[in-house]
Amino acid sequence: MSDTARSLIAQTVERVEGTLQEVLSPTSQAGEGPRPARLVEAMRYAALAGGKRLRPALMIESARLLGRTDDGVLVAAAALECIHCYSLVHDDLPAMDDDELRRGRPTTHIAFDEATAILAGDSLLTLAFDLIARPEVSDSTQVRLTLSQELARAAGVGGMAGGQMMDLESEHRARTEDEIRLLQSLKTGALIRYACRSGAILAQASPQTVETLTRFGEIIGYAFQLADDLLDACGDAEVVGKATGKDADKGKATLLGLMGEDKARKILAGLIEEALSLLAPFEDKADNLTALAKFVAARSN
Question: Is this prediction's pTM over 0.90?
Answer without folding.
Answer: yes
